[in-house]
Specification:
Radius of gyration: 31 Å
Shape: elongated
Structural class: alpha/beta
Order of helices and strands: HHHHHHHHEEHHHHHEEEEHEHEHHHHH
């Protein structure tokens, strides 16, 4: 029996002109991306290319943004992979050209940050921005640098001297460091060239010097605050500083405060004795012995002074590949990278972003409130904010009482918070009169309303970070530096917001504006 097949005719020419509109279904994500880019404010992208007719025509910025948005939506962030997809994937070819992708991202870095607000405005127009409950959190994202590429100042200085000898010409060998740095930056060809490596080492050296100066200023400020408290006879509260110099300053102030309290106590005792003698009566009770608190403070001062004398100078390190990145601790271990922040609505729309070098979240709460207000105002969103939820990493009395919308900030880690709630039980009503800021927040979290509201935090913000890292592959920033990381994080969250808008339109078609 003869078999009849429809065989491929790979040499067959197209009989009619090809229409790219026939390659994809009508509701395909690529068409949506093209339509959305037409609604975004891309004026800043076009400002770089004046229409003066000089040089080769640039690629259309709107086309390049559409290409990047579609690629990022599918978890493809590498410029080489995007180029490969443009050769083989019909959706990429519809968006179309693939050249100069990486250069476009670098050249339009600042302008692309502004696209986040335009995308947020589209989501708000579709009714996706609900500000009744917002969740704030941060996640650690790696930089394009190895964790073991951190070096101290001595190593950097040795390498700088070697590279200067090999790189800087004899006529510039005696130039000042600033001129040498500019020379190396102007002639740098990245880390592949000696001048590029020298420029990066000089930048790393500047980071260490700045951190040393900032640490010295912080120690001095804390010591001055401790002296003011000691002068008033008050002991400084809070954690003992890890820095030996700061710990010594704290111990000295604690000893002064303890001495002032002991002298005041002795003065009161002497006044009572004098009053009793004047009345010719015997003062009852035992004569006071040595002041135990003063003895403890003096012993702590001796120990702190010995520790400060024995301590070696602080050994600061910086990453020589990406000096602006920092060592961050995660649940899986240590990572060289940045702290990426986001404020998220109940339906997973990101309304504010930030990238920080701070490993801890506590100092980022107030700055994120400010960025949230700026982003909402720029997007024209005037709806009032309900409640902001944040985990224990943001807890401080300053954050709990700062100006801004209502907030629920956990005072303990989640598992400790649940255990404390079980042990203390639930409560009702307003916090008791005279409660401290901490007690008032814990009271609110133990009410039925507070517990139900805070329970929304994890399933509001955590899925967004999971989507960015797992679905979009954003576990490491592609470019080095804080500014580049900030631009990429905003673009990643713009992509996520537009993906949510695409899903919303597919389920319930509505006009973009």
């Amino acid at each position: 029996m003869a078999f009849s097949y429809v065989k491929p005719q790979r040499d067959q020419q197209f009989l009619l002109p090809v229409s790219m509109a026939d390659w994809l279904d009508e509701g395909h994500l690529a068409w949506f991306v093209i339509e959305v880019v037409g609604e975004l404010d891309t004026t800043a992208l076009h400002a770089r290319h004046p229409n003066d007719g000089v040089g080769r025509p640039a690629y259309d910025p709107d086309m390049m943004v559409a290409l990047l948005l579609y690629a990022y939506s599918n978890g493809t962030r590498s410029s080489r992979r995007i180029e490969a997809c443009c050769r083989t994937d019909a959706a990429y070819r519809v968006i179309p050209d693939h050249s100069t992708i990486c250069r476009f991202v670098v050249d339009h870095q600042g302008a692309m940050e502004g696209l986040f607000v335009s995308g947020l405005r589209l989501c708000a127009a579709a009714g996706l921005v609900d500000l009744s409950v917002l969740a704030l959190d941060g996640t650690k994202i790696g930089s394009d640098a190895a964790l073991d590429a951190n070096r101290d100042a001595a190593w950097i200085l040795d390498r700088v001297e070697e590279l200067l000898a090999a790189t800087v010409a004899s006529e510039t060998a005696e130039a000042d460091p600033a001129q040498i740095s500019l020379l190396c930056l102007d002639g740098a060809g990245g880390l592949a060239s000696p001048r590029g490596r020298l420029a990066c080492l000089l930048a790393a050296k500047a980071v260490i010097e700045a951190e040393d100066a900032a640490a010295a200023t912080q120690v001095s400020a804390k010591a001055e605050a401790a002296r003011r408290e000691a002068a008033a006879g008050r002991k400084v509260h809070g954690r003992k500083p890890k820095c030996p110099a700061a710990a010594l300053a704290r111990a000295e102030s604690d000893r002064v405060a303890a001495l002032a309290r002991a002298e005041a106590k002795a003065a009161r005792r002497a006044a009572k004795v004098a009053a009793a003698e004047a009345r010719s009566v015997k003062l009852g009770g035992f004569a006071p012995g040595p002041d135990r608190n003063l003895e403890k403070a003096e012993a702590a001062l001796v120990a702190a002074r010995a520790a400060a004398e024995a301590a070696s100078p602080a050994k600061r390190t910086v990453n020589i590949t990406d000096p602006e990145s920092r060592i961050m601790k995660t649940a899986q271990g240590w990572v060289q990278g940045f702290n990426a922040q986001a404020v998220v609505t109940k339906n997973h729309i990101v309304v504010a972003t930030f990238v920080s070098q701070n490993a801890n979240d506590v100092e980022l709460f107030v700055p994120m409130l400010a960025r949230l207000a700026v982003a909402l105002a720029a997007a024209g969103i005037a709806d009032p904010i309900g409640t902001i939820l944040a985990d224990a990493g943001y807890w401080s009395e300053d954050n709990a009482t700062a100006d801004g919308p209502d907030r629920l900030i956990a005072t303990l880690k989640d598992y400790k918070q649940r255990r404390a709630a079980r042990d203390a039980g639930t409560t009702t009503g307003e916090p008791p009169e005279g409660a401290t800021v901490l007690e008032a927040m814990e009271h609110r979290l133990r009410t039925a309303e507070g517990a139900a509201a805070y329970a929304q935090r994890s399933h509001t913000v955590e899925p967004v970070f999971g989507d960015r890292k797992e679905n979009h592959g954003c576990r490491r920033f592609r470019r080095r530096g804080l500014t580049a990381a900030t631009s990429e994080w905003e673009f990643m969250n713009l992509t996520g917001n537009l993906t949510k808008l695409y899903g919303h339109r597919c389920s319930q078609p509505v006009p973009l504006i």
